[in-house]
Amino acid sequence: MDELANQFFDRSMRLDPLAATLNGLVGYGPGYPDYGPQGRTDRAHLRTETLSALETAQPRDDVDRVTIHALRHRLQLESDLYSADLDVAPVNNIASPVQWVREIFDNMPTATPEDWQQVVERLRHVPRALESYTEGLREAASLGKLASMTQIREAGAQAEAYSELKGPLGSLLTHDSVPVSLREPLEDAVTDARQAYSSLVRSFHEDFAATARDTDAVGEDAYRLHLQSFLGAKLEPREVYEWGIEQLRLLDEEQRLVAHQISPGVSIRESMKLLNEDPARRLNSTEELQHWMQDLSDQAVSELSKDHFEFTDAMRNLECMIAPTQDGGIYYTPPSSDFSRPGRMWWSVPEGTSRHATWEETTTVYHEGVPGHHLQFATALANAGELNAWRRMGIWVSGHGEGWALYAERLMAELGYLDDPGDRMGMLDSQRLRTVRVIFDVGFHCGYTVPAELGEMLGGARAGEIWSPQDGWDFLSHNVIMDPAVLRFEWLRYMGWPGQAPSYKLGQELWLDLRKQVKAREGDQFDLKHFHSRALRLGSVGLDTLAHAMTL
Q1: Is residue 298 domain-shared with residue 194, that is, in the same domain?
Q2: Taking a C-beta distance cutoff of 8 angstroms, is the pair 444, 217 a contact?
Q3: Residue 100 falls within a domain, yes or no?
Q4: What is the pLDDT of residue 482?
Q5: Exposure check for the chain: N or C terminus, fewer CB within 10 A?
Q6: What pLDDT is recorded for position 486?
């Protein structure tokens, strides 16, 4: 079984050299996937072959049983998306070739002449990568699956920023470590890459604006499949919507209690205003933010590795970085397979933003780092003796990964790390964000009506009306304290990436349910540290597979 999974992984990496680089693998070349029709067909052919081979696969042990379950479920879901033409040339502000083609340079080493030669080689492939993406956009238009004008406009703005000399590609020229012998080739390659992004911007406006959809909403049937893909579990959108409404009510009550602890008699928003005015909770520059992130992350690794989680020495290295972009995103990139490149959390600070509040962001560091994403990825990577390459590096299910990271935020409160009312309010604000976007994401994409029962929590959203983008903005603005530039990024993200945003809160709930089930089975023998280690050592499998694996 490991041989079959590893063969699939190897062939997948050959079709996607970008993923191979992210995994720290050599021998797959400096190129990019084919983002056009041919690449889509090649990936579908590989899935079909592998699914056929799985029909006769015989497990030797429980590890094989989990691999078969995980691989079959993942490939079938991807095949279903392919059959429905829901995997064609995505366009959005966070997870599309517009971002992927550029972001890889953030994770490529630049310490030696050999490193810079690899950077130059990859830059030379940028024009063809974006050309294949344009071919994919034409296919999407022919199938009636092109993204909305809103997403095309936003992705176009990002591409335009990448094309500028002062943008993140141009900034490669400012590195002191560029060898003299490669400076001219680097300048030429950067120029060609920037021009390729300029060409993409023109294509967005001249070739695709006229055929763009007039709405981001995908409809209930497509949404059901998107949601299942992000969770690795099948849930009904209407039931998820009603559940999200009830969760928001409960969170609002919890936040009111914490607001009273901060200052008796104040509202939730008033308590947050008091926290923002506290100079002890304020960071006044991007540099202060980076140092604070690193210190808090190092402390979490040091303390949690003593009693609560299992760490190898390599897993302890986690770097906190300021991203070269300014779009407001916060994200994590995993270590290379041999840990020579460490795990990193990245903060993309919007232009003009210089002040940050520690009460709001403490929980974010736990989410992106330890015990969140870094612990999750690093545990699977370190389990090379048990997991094949696909299980360690080839699968990422958002409901599992983002659900774990949100579960990790609550867990830190459970372990006593968020006893300070301000830090706890920050965690609850994070939970509230993930809850309100369940409501908006499901409601908007499925065409449901704005729930009147939420009353004043709706903000300016129109009760009883079908969700519109403006309703979503008013609802989010009322419920989440966030820099307006970052909130706008989030709002656009939900509309352009259907089904992903709810995977955090739903994934957290399924992790909590699994913990309760295992505890009920094991009774007095239940050990929380062992539960976490056993579950994380499985890798990022779908949530149905996770539940199945924990019964073996």
Answers
A1: no
A2: yes
A3: yes
A4: 84
A5: C
A6: 86
Q: Quick one: what percent of the chain has pLDDT higher than 70?
A: 100
Q: Is the peptide bond before 502 cis (omega within 30 degrees of 0)?
A: no
**Token pair belonging to 9:** 């992984």
Q: What are 97-113's pLDDT values in tens digits?
A: 999 999 999 989 999 99
Residue type, 295: D
The mean per-residue pLDDT over the stretch 324-352 comes to 90
| 72 inside domain | no
Of the residues 155, 190, 215, the one at which a domain ends: 215
Residue 343, both tokens: 């795990």
Question: Is residue 406 domain-shared with residue 365, that is, in the same domain?
Answer: yes
Question: How far apart (Å, rounded) are the C-alpha atoms in residues 526 and 20?
Answer: 38
Mean pLDDT, residues 177-182: 96
Alpha-carbon gap, residue 217 to 190, rounded angstroms: 37
Does residue 68 lie in a domain region? no
Q: Looking at the structure, do residues 483 and 550 belong to the same domain, yes or no?
A: yes
Would you say 550 and 534 are in contact if contact means Cβ atoms under 8 Å apart?
A: yes
Judged against a pLDDT cut of 80, whether residue 122 lies above it is answered with: yes
CB count in 10 Å sphere of residue 114: 9
Neighbouring residues of 408: CB distance < 8 A, sequence distance ≥ 6 = 366, 367, 371, 372, 375
Query: Is residue 206 located within the same domain as residue 225?
Result: no
Token output for 402: 């983002």
Helix, strand, coil fractions of the chain, as percent rounded to 5: 65, 5, 30
Q: What is the DSSP string of 361-407?
A: HHHHHHHHSTTTHHHHHHHHHH-TTTS-HIIIII---HHHHHHHHHH
Together in a domain, 456 and 317: yes
- In a domain, residue 29? The reply is yes
pLDDT over threshold 80, residue 327? no
Q: How far apart are CA 47 and CA 39, in angstroms?
A: 12
Torsion sign across C-alpha atoms 486, 492, 496, 498: positive
Task: Give the pLDDT score at 424.
Answer: 98
The answer to whether residues 473 and 279 touch, using CB atoms and an 8 Å cutoff, is no
Domain total in the chain: 2
Structure tokens at 201: 């911007």
CA-wise closest residue to 40 among 145, 153, 192? 145
Q: List CB contacts of 219: < 8 A, sequence separation 6 or more.
A: 445, 446, 447
171 and 317 both lie in a single domain: no
pLDDT tens digit string along 20-41? 999 989 999 999 999 999 999 9
Q: What is the pTM of this model?
A: 0.94
Q: Which of 154, 180, 215 is the last residue of a domain?
A: 215
Return the structure tokens found at 422.
Answer: 């301000």
How many angstroms separate the CA atoms of 55 and 439, rounded? Answer: 39
Query: Are 396 and 272 in a shared domain?
Result: yes
Distance CA 404, CA 376 (A): 8
Q: Domain range spanning residue 147?
A: 2-58+87-215
Structure tokens at 1: 């079984």
